[in-house]
Amino acid sequence: MIARSEALLQRLPWTLIVFLVSAPIPWLGSRYDTFLGTLIATLFAVSLNLLLGTTGLVSFGHVAYFGIGAYVCGILMKTYGVAFSLALPAAALGAALFALVAGFFCVRLIRIYFAMLTLAFSQIVWAICFTWNDVTGGDQGLPEVPYPDLEWMSAIPGFDGLRSTDQFYLVTLVVVAASLAAIRRISLSPFGRMLTTIRENPERAAFIGVNVRAYELAAFVFAGAFAGIAGALFGISSRGVFADFVYWPKSAEVMIMTILGGMEYFWGPPLGAATLVILNQQITSWTEYWSLALGFILLVLLFSFPGGIVGGIVAGYRYARHRLAARRA
Description:
By secondary structure, this protein is an all-alpha fold. It has one domain: ABC transporter involved in vitamin B12 uptake, BtuC (Orthogonal Bundle). Helix content is about 75%, strand content about 0%. The chain contains 16 helices and two strands. The chain has helices spanning about 1-10, 15-20, 25-30, 30-55, 65-80, 85-105, 110-130, 135, 165-190, 190-200, 200-205, 210-235, 250-260, 270-285, 290-305, 310-329; strands spanning about 140-145, 240. The protein has a two-stranded antiparallel sheet. The radius of gyration is 20 Å and the shape is globular. The two termini are about 15 Å apart.
């Protein structure tokens, strides 16, 4: 009975459910920036979990692909006037190409050496973005990145009264939902199951003839592409792209999101991202020592839920079901 209930929960179309719940927010007058930041952080965290949770690769430089996506989209839209419909795929492609180059070298190493090399590539990207004034704007960045032209949305009944920020929120929601569905599909495909096999025992996978390095490189490219999409959306929502987007602490931030939510579960990183975004905003408004308070709260959460928040919820659900079954028996 317990296994049947868990199987039913896993079969539910959670991506569609979250999409339907989040879609009415512009009409409800809710805080636009909070939900938009949560959506983008969710995609960023899930893209990292394709490496961390699914493949077992610890990347300290995942922010590089996030930043590359932001810069590619921002430069194309602001400097060259390229439409958002073209700039967004270009951002994903640019991030994927750099992930291909960086991953070619990184997957040749293991464990801590792999992690440190990803951090080194991230620092290279940050240095280029910080100093290449003619293209990236250097330390001044690229301010005033325009919103995409969404006038066509006003012709749809019920959408004509929405502000440009609300329209962009809906576009972001669609992009994030489609990306999450694609990542979910990748994780459940034979390719994704092979990545899980490599995570559990790479030596055994290589022994049975699996090209471990090729699979890890492919996962690296997919994760980089989706991180680039998240970065492009974040650059537009922030109305500018700056070198801070590529600085290494953001890699630590997205890793905290992933571990906090539960990297063994697909919906762990989204819940971790939402928790961190909300905690950050609330604590900042309460005290000037927000970083100390946030660190203390995160320590408590991580020690209370070793398997992440979703892991704790699943463990509590199983315990309650076992107790109920034992009482009935």
